Amino acid sequence: ILYANHKGRQRTMNTHLRPVPKSIAAGLCLSLLAVLFGFVLGGVFGAAESSIRKRLDNCGSAVLQSAYQGNVAAKDAVVKKSWEYLKRAHLHGGAIGTAAIGAIVSLILLCRLGMLARLSALAFGSGAFLYSLYWLFAGLVAPGLGSASVAKESLSFIAIPGAGLCILGLCGTIVSVVRGCFFRSAEP
User: For residues 143 and 59, is the Cβ–Cβ distance under 8 A?
Assistant: First the structure.
């Protein structure tokens, strides 16, 4: 690729792109999937908020006697919390997915793509998607279980690995970027 420098002379830009390992590409795809998931949820919420809220309320009403002991206020509080959890799924998908994309692109541009970088990309992308799924499931099951806390606890097998993978992926990215930017041997 040719470009003109500040003095108007043409220069050739080095455009050699190195191949991206499959594990990094998979992490990037999972991150993009998390962002898409967040966007789609936002669209669905915008198009069908009242229907979704009614479904949540109906799920709570179906177990009003068994799960809520007839306490309508308790059911309404869980239904309200469920809607908040669904919004968290939307927000976490977009936010963590975007953070993962930025981290993975940083790895690709700034680092030697060794095992730590590969695992970090895969972990961050997987965690971004898993953690947003956790909030969606928690929001959907809480009214039927009679408790937002019980819903979260019952799905901790998704939440803990999802959040843990995000943290591990971010920490691995930080270590890789610091190594790549500050401790890499000078290239000829």
Answer: yes
What does the alpha-carbon distance between residue 40 and residue 37 come to, in Å, rounded to a whole number? 5
Between CA 94 and CA 135 the distance in angstroms is 13
Tokens at 21, concatenated: 């390992």
pTM for the complete prediction? 0.86
Closest CA to 74 of 139, 148, 182: 148
Q: Alpha-carbon dihedral of residues 160, 161, 165, 168, nearest 10 degrees?
A: 60
pLDDT tens-digit readout, 59-79: 999 999 999 999 999 999 999
Residue 188 reports pLDDT greater than 50: no
Pairs from 154-158 (Cβ < 8 Å, separation ≥ 24): 158/130, 158/131, 158/133, 158/134
Locate the domains of the chain by residue range: 22-182
Which phi and psi (to 5°) does residue 3 adopt? -145, 160
Please give the Cα distance from 136 to 52 (Å, whole number).
12
